[in-house]
Amino acid sequence: MELLPRSPAEFGSARYWDRFFRQRGQRPFEWYGAFPELCPVLHKYVRPRDKVLVVGCGNSELSEQMYDTGLCEDIVNIDVSDAVIRQMGERSAGTRPRMSYLLMDMLQMDFPDAHFQVVLDKGTLDALLTDEEEATLAKVDQMFAEISRVLQVGGRYLCVSLAQGHVLKKAVEYFSQEGWVVRVHQVASSGDKQQFVLPVFVYVMTKFRKIPGSAAQILEICPEEQDKPMRVESAERLVAAVKDRQHYALLCSQISKTPCREQVSLDLCDKESGKPRYTLHVVDSSSVKPSRDNHFAIFIIPQGRETEWLFGTEEGRRQLAASAGFGRLVTVALHREQHYEGMAGIQAELSGKVMELAPPGLPDRQQVPFLSVGGDIGVRAVRHCDSSPLSGEFVVEDVKGDGSCYFRRLIFLQNRNVVQSEARLLAPTPLPGQKKRRKDKKKPIPPEPPGAIDKSCLCCEHHKAMVAGLCLLGGPDALPGELAVLVVGLGGGSLPLFVHDYFSQARVAVVEIDPSMLEVATRWFGFSQGDRMQVHVSDGLDYVAKLAAEAPAQYDAIMFDVDSKDLTVGMSCPPPAFVEKPFLQKVKTILKPEGVFVLNLVCRDARLKESVLATLRDVFPLLYARRIQGEVNEILFCQLSPAGRHGPAELGARARALEGALRQPG
What we know:
Blueprint: H1 14-24, H2 35-45, E1 52-55, H3 62-68, E2 75-79, H4 82-92, E3 99-103, E4 116-122, H5 124-128, H6 134-150, E5 151-161, H7 165-177, E6 181-186, E7 201-206, E8 218-222, E9 230-232, H8 235-257, E10 264-269, E11 276-284, E12 296-300, H9 309-312, H10 314-324, E13 328-334, H11 342-354, E14 370-372, E15 380-388, E16 392-400, E17 406-412, E18 421-425, H12 461-468, E19 483-488, H13 494-502, E20 506-512, H14 515-524, E21 533-537, H15 540-550, E22 555-560, E23 571-573, H16 581-590, E24 591-603, H17 606-619, E25 622-627, E26 634-639, H18 648-663
Parallel strand pairs: 1-2, 1-4, 2-3, 4-5, 6-8, 12-13, 12-14, 19-20, 19-22, 20-21, 22-24
Antiparallel strand pairs: 5-7, 6-7, 8-9, 10-11, 11-13, 15-16, 16-17, 17-18, 23-24, 24-26, 25-26
GO biological process, one term: methylation
Family: Belongs to the methyltransferase superfamily.
InterPro entries: Lys/N-term_MeTrsfase_sf, Methyltransf_11, SAM-dependent_MTases_sf
């Protein structure tokens, strides 16, 4: 039986609908949105005393169910199909005396002005607005004008729709420009994902008198999981918010049927602020043999540890899923701007949402475990928030690491998953006479506030490798007693501070373009200047060029640890200008003949990386590379000639030994 139209235009044809309903017979046809799903929204906007008009009623049971449940009885149904009007009238004859069915075109209605409190449309607008041709849009304008005419001021037009972009945009723009309040509800799903994948929405347009000259618009969205509407600033933003929810529904449908070939990432936002609250990654492990108890688990990443390799990279999360022994693992990262009520609170908040991400084959009523490191959600305390014209927004925060250690971190929020600088915090020293709590008390002891910066510890692996590269300066016996070192890029100051303290005869010059970073390093990371440590607030490019012109061959070591603010380039460290050949020639000029130039390179673009390495080899005859395990960083050591009588192999062994020593506690 062929029920589908031959063209979208037939959706507006009375002849097509007569044929459709005659062939379908008495079986009700629900486009989407069954009464139990729509009921919560209908109860908000339809009152028992309201006079309700249903346009394009078809043979849907919606009006009958509204009547039979007592939601509303004064209901007028209209449709262009004579066959369906006769069929529905006969079905309600004698049982629903206050409900009527009329053969009428909604584009030319016979009702007087302001006759109804509610106009209800279930799929009719979607069927009419099949394209954006001029003739179609003219019909829609006529439909909206008629609905506006028959509605009282304060009345509501409820439109049940799949919210295709052009349909929603047309409705929102038309009624908001007329001064109406527009609110979009997402309808709670019945749970039958097989029947209909796309979510159903109800547009609620409330009629107000148009105020001449007023451009104010009230646009709101109500996601299915909350009652309180969220205000949005424009029609475009409202359409985008609906599209996000449609994409999420399609994603959930897809991953509920087939395993994920690639890791899926999504943000769950705070209901009040709309800001990201949780970042989820869905990871399927093909190496895990499924059984009843290992299908699915949720892993809560402790606060402050989301940047670690195991949690912050695809490969790390894949390894985590395999070692946890679950076929599908959803990792959950917590955002620093949010407050969380412990593991139990997070579990209560996420339980319903994460089940939408369950894998195929999950047994019914299966208990899904929530996992974490040590069973808690970690500790994060934001110490300082600020912004600068050069670095943008940044935060200084203290986090609890693996075990009992605390760390202080500098994070640039434009790249919030990268730790810019990190320092270990010393354990607080008890005051004289202060007694420790007895360990046998039942009440948990709150964590001690962290103490001062541990200047003897280098936390970042790439900093350890950079310092170890100074072994390339060694003569027959040891490193030179006096070192002239230039560091470009201050950050939190950990690298220059360690060189200053570890090498007692070193004289360190630091170049930092952002004066805010000098303030941050001094106030929060224990950095200070002195006779052997000077900071120059300047652009590194200009500073090196000036030195090359005035005082060549003065540094034993030059270290570049400079981040790029341009996230569109496949190299986040250093900025491209720092590895162009003319500038590298200037670096060569200020380096002593047996000195070493150390560069922290973070480049994901393989072709760009090869170009950088080729340029470096053109300028420096000797080039050594040290890859940092589990990170993108690669430390490059460049020399004009080897220092002393030691060969590269022996110098490399000494560098690895020093780097190993730097990893030891204290």
